[in-house]
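Predict structure. Chain length: 311.
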Amino acid sequence: MKYSLGAAAVLVIAFVTAVSGVNEYFFYAAFVVLQFMVLATAWNILGGYAGYVNFGTAAFFAIGSYTAVVLFKWLGAPLAVQIAAAAVVSGLLGFGVGLLTLRLRGIFFAIATVAIIFIMETMMMNWRYVGGATGLQLLRPDVLQPFASYTRMLFFVMALLAVIAVSVARYVQVSWIGRGLRAIRDSEEAAECSGVPTLKLKLFACTVSGALMGAAGAPMPMYLSFIEPASSFSLNYSVSALAMPMIGGTVHWLGPVLGALLLGSIQQIVTVTISNEINVLVVGVLLVLFVVLAPDGVVGLFRKWTRRFSR
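Prediction complete.
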């Protein structure tokens, strides 16, 4: 009940902010932070709960973007339809990738997910309908009322997607699905001996994770008014989606949210004040610091301090 009220309050605040007179750049930056929140939360369902490190985030994100572009160019579909279709297509991709790779473990699974990025990128580079290697310029449709600009509307849409993603992750964590995924992470052999349907749970996690990543990518073409393979399939998405849960904490649904807020905000500040190229350095430095000093992330650090003070 408390979580539902909190989620509703977040959406109300996001809507009021979107229709207010806040500076336009805030919505450009906040959209990116919220987008990474969805990606980090989606990554954590498979990478954090189940322990299967996925480096293929960029593939699912980009396929969601290209699905939206195809529907917009072919049918003129509205944004809501684009997002729903992107989630379905990326979810099916996640299911297919899961069938092919989830019997692999450790570094072999990670390498297989990286290969998915290059396979999908090569396909898009040779598909002339979506612009091929040179990309495609898009003309935004009219913005919906009461939003004053398309960026403000996309900010609210991404806030809604973030709430949905976090709600799904929270449900997975507290349900029997989450308990099964944690058992797989601790010892897959022991989980199988205990009757846990390991393959079904891993396929579920891969499908849901892929669907949320695709949904996060769907608004991106309209945000940029442009799409091209090099930026859509950028490994920066994969690295950031992995780093944010690691920094926030992978054992709890709140970890990716905190990691995205912390790292995403720092990246936006660095982009404005110093240089966009420093973003990767910021991610690397923070990731090393947290791995060494706080391997359980912000959530684990908070729990440690709470136990210490309670004693």
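Summary: The chain has a mean pLDDT of 87.
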